[in-house]
Amino acid sequence: MLERGHYASRASDWISALLAGLFLATTFPVPRAAAASFAADLKQIGYEEIELRRTGENHLFLFARVNGRRCSCLVDTGWSLTTISTNITQRLTKAGNLDELKLGHVTLTNEPAVVQDLRVNGQLTAFDLVLGCDFLIRHHAVIDCAGRRLYLRREALANEPKGELEAELRGRGFIVSEMKRHDPLALTCAAKLNGHDVELLVDTAAMWSCLDTETARVLALRTSPSANQISGAAAAGKRGFGVTKVESFAIGRWQRADVPLAVLALADWGLGTNGQILGEVGGILGGDVMLANAAVIDCGQLKLWLRSRK
Questions:
Q1: Cα–Cα distance, 139 to 133 (Å, whole number)
Q2: Helices then strands (H, E): number in the chain?
Q3: What's the domain count of the chain?
Q4: Across 67-223, where does the E strand assignment appear?
Q5: How many Å is the Cα radius of gyration of the chain?
Q6: Per-residue pLDDT band at 132 (split at 50, 70, 90)
Q7: What is the CATH number of the domain that holds 123?
Q8: Residues 174-205, buried b or exposed e (16+ Cβ, 10 A)?
Q9: Fewer CB atoms < 10 Å away: N or C end of the chain?
């Protein structure tokens, strides 16, 4: 079971068949020229670019180096504290720190990290290192989900370049929503599902977006059973889940119709009505919706940008 400070949604370890058979909304194509232009704009105001990869399970990751040793690294807004696996920590780190962390061409030193046995159902996870919410906020990270880029900055943006960045995103057809920072560390956004207020955890490592079973009940959503099962850190074994579809899904002025969602009890991850950490969070905004709508997550400014449909 994860420590309370690392509650995370751990949808990142869900099986790839999580919502097999459901329709994934058509993603926005991101032309290379547009992605390169956005990268150039961010570099001009002091961001450093790190190229990411995407797994078949919607995970954004890269191969990093910790003290010269190659390791797989998950970028996860739904994980509170940056964590390195006990499997690779011998002779690598001092207690509580990554002495040297190389992410692409970016080198960082003396990065705080928790050492933990990263396993799901007794098996080592696919990732040796998780860059969590603490790291992303501390380095004013911007995550371009569709462009598969992580941008870091040494210090917070001043007002003028901040305005330039926001104008650039609006000009590209993005709609902004505010995110909320919690303690323990988490980023959430306020959504309206079928007209009802629901707070969602913003989780780049969640393969699919989902609702807590109690939230689905309150919204009177029709839920169909699935033959598949899920598993993840902080939850023993596998369990079943349901699937539903909301007619109206809105985050601020951004809106979509007929959005498919998984339905399951989120208490093991500290979320939902019965959760012991963030009981006010009724669901998760996951990688499917973020990829389909070309999300840009500004962890430093606590802003979530989603592409509009014109």
A1: 10
A2: 5, 23
A3: 1
A4: 69-75, 83-85, 97-103, 106-112, 114-116, 119-120, 123-124, 129-131, 142-144, 149-152, 174-182, 186-193, 196-202, 210-212
A5: 18
A6: very high
A7: 2.40.70.10
A8: bbbbebeebebbbbbbebebeeeebbbbbbbb
A9: C
Distances from the Cα of 271 to the Cα of 38, 79, 145, 218, 274, angstroms? 35, 13, 24, 16, 7
pLDDT digits (tens, 9 = 90+) for 144-185: 999 999 999 989 988 888 998 999 899 999 999 999 999 989
SS3 category, 25: coil
- Residue of 16 and 174 predicted with greater confidence: 174
Crossing angle (nearest 10°) for helices 32-44 and 159-171: 170
Query: Tell me, what DSSP letter sits at residue 26?
Result: P
Range of the domain at 9: 4-307
The DSSP letter of residue 162 is H
Q: How confident is the model at residue 7 (pLDDT cuts 50, 70, 90)?
A: very low
Alpha helices by DSSP H, listed for 14-81, are 32-44
Q: Are 231 and 120 in contact (CB under 8 A)?
A: yes
Residue for token digits 């990688």? 287
In the block, tokens 């689905």 appear at: 216
Separation of alpha carbons 238 and 261, rounded Å:
19
Residues 6+ apart with CB under 8 A from 276: 4, 267, 270
pLDDT, position 118: 83
Sequence-ordered list of residues with C-beta below 8 angstroms from that of 27, at least 6 positions apart, any chain: 146, 291, 292, 294
**CB distance 248 to 177 below 8 Å:** no
The predicted pLDDT at position 37 comes to 84
Q: Among 247, 230, 44, 21, which residue's Cα sits nearest to residue 120?
A: 230
Rounded CA gap, 161 and 240, in Å?
47
The neighbour count for residue 225, using CB atoms within 10 Å, is 10
Selection from 242, 243, 241 nearest residue 258 by Cα: 243
